[in-house]
Amino acid sequence: MASRGGPRAAGTDGSDFQHRERVASHYQMSVSLKSEIKKLIYTHVGIWLLLLAQMCVGHFKLLPHDQVAMPYQWEYPYLLSILPSLLGLLSFPRNNISYLVLSMISTGLFSVAPLIYGAMEMFPMAQQLYRHGKAYRFIFGFSAVSVMYLVVVVAAQVHGWQLYYSKKLLDSWFTSTQEKKKK
């Protein structure tokens, strides 16, 4: 438009460059989706730490079993759910598609599958609690099955949104990759 120290191009005042300074929409979407996924990962880490604390208290007998019950079987494989979150975080700095895909697949295996198994494992105890009012396991005075179902519901939502946003992020990255190949 203008040479260094030389005359400006005829018919311009130098303000016609702003249309070229917009960020492409897929880059904007990538940044916002990464932010949302990070929030979900941090929420997942919080849930994971609570389950880990409950398991440690139960196994090391730091509190009596009438205050904190022993963990259900589904909680052990759920501890592996931290791995998909770490893979997701590792995929962000360089938009690594393979890490994000591995994160999504392992979220299904290590996060969603144990939650489904946990809902099935606790169902007979939940039926007994709500039909007969009998609970045999407690977490700080609350029925353990009620507390853990609440954890399952919240964790399922976190992982569901995490998978949804990861898929949208993957689509955004593919759009970016396809545009680079066209050039």
TrEMBL record:
Gene Ontology CC terms, in alphabetical order: endoplasmic reticulum membrane
Localization of this protein: Endoplasmic reticulum membrane
Transmembrane among keywords: yes
Keyword Acyltransferase in record: no
One GO biological process term: endoplasmic reticulum organization
Pfam families named among the record's database cross-references: Jagunal
Bilayer-crossing regions: 40-62, 99-118, 138-158
UniProt keyword terms in alphabetical order: Endoplasmic reticulum, Membrane, Transmembrane, Transmembrane helix
Highest rank taxon of the organism: Eukaryota
Lipid bilayer topology: Multi-pass membrane protein
Family: Belongs to the jagunal family.
PANTHER family per the UniProt record, alphabetical: PROTEIN JAGUNAL HOMOLOG 1
Protein name, as recorded: Protein jagunal homolog 1
Organism, as annotated: Rynchops niger
